[in-house]
């Protein structure tokens, strides 16, 4: 359903490779500001990044989850954009190294992936959730034409800010 590589004006989205683990760990895996609204804690060991990338590579083979590495020019990994196919919809999540925040890179990547997904005959919806306090993520989704469909109480565990499930907003873009 989705290509292994997507090119935008400033980015290349590609299938991960095992050497990406070290770059991920160094670029943002340990950063508590980056992981604040993520479902994972800052990585303590490079082996955690290796396990994540290994799983991402294996998931590509199943064709149910596509974790794209984001490259900017000669920089090999500035973030990731995760896409999970669930029947007629694509559920997305994303992370970006703090050094690249505020440059419009994630809206560029997400817009490109969303356009490709919605061109597929079997895909009718691209959706994402974000914590109700994650205003930059909400703005990213809005820039990409996603609509806030509502609030989901006690929806996602964000272990860096709470030990209990937090409310999230559901955003979607449909054809």
What does this structure look like?
This protein has an eight-stranded mixed sheet with strand order 1-2-3-4-5-6-8-7, with helices on both faces. The protein is 31% helix and 35% strand. The protein is built from five helices and eight strands. It has a domain at 5-123: Aminopeptidase, CATH 3.40.630.30. The chain is globular. With 175 residues, it is of the alpha+beta class. The chain has helices spanning 20-29, 32-35, 46-62, 105-119, 135-143; strands at 5-7, 11-14, 65-72, 75-86, 89-96, 125-131, 147-156, 166-174.
CATH topology of the domain at 5-123: Aminopeptidase
Element-level helix/strand string: EEHHHEEEHEHEE
Q: Decide which structural class fits the backbone.
A: alpha+beta
Mean pLDDT: 96
| Helix-residue proportion | 25-40%
- What is the CATH homology-level superfamily of the domain at 5-123? Gcn5-related N-acetyltransferase (GNAT)
Report the radius of gyration as a whole number of Å.
15 Å
Strands side by side in the biggest sheet: 1-2-3-4-5-6-8-7
> Which architecture of the domain at 5-123 does the CATH hierarchy give at level 2?
3-Layer(aba) Sandwich
The total of helices stands at: 5
Kindly state the number of beta strands.
8
What is the CA-CA span between the terminal residues? 16 Å
Q: At the first level of CATH, what is the class of the domain at 5-123?
A: Alpha Beta
| Sheet with the most strands, sense and barrel status | 8 strands, mixed
Residue stretches low in confidence (pLDDT < 50, at least 5 long) are: none
Shape: globular
Strand proportion: 25-35%
């Amino acid at each position: 359903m989705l290509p292994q590589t997507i090119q935008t004006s400033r980015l290349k989205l590609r299938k991960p490779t095992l050497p990406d683990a070290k770059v991920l760990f160094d670029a943002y895996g340990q950063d508590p500001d980056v992981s604040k609204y993520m479902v994972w804690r800052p990585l303590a060991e490079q082996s955690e990044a290796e396990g994540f990338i290994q799983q991402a590579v294996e998931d590509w083979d199943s064709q149910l989850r596509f974790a794209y590495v984001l490259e900017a020019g000669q920089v090999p990994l500035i973030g990731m954009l995760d896409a999970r196919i669930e029947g007629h919809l694509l559920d997305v999540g994303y992370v970006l190294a703090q050094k690249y925040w505020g440059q419009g890179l994630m809206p560029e990547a997400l817009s490109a992936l969303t356009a490709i997904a919605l061109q597929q005959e079997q895909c009718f919806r691209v959706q994402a959730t974000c914590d109700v306090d994650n205003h930059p993520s909400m703005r990213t989704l809005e820039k990409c034409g996603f609509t806030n469909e509502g609030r989901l109480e006690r929806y996602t565990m964000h272990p860096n800010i709470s030990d209990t499930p937090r409310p999230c907003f559901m955003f979607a873009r449909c054809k």
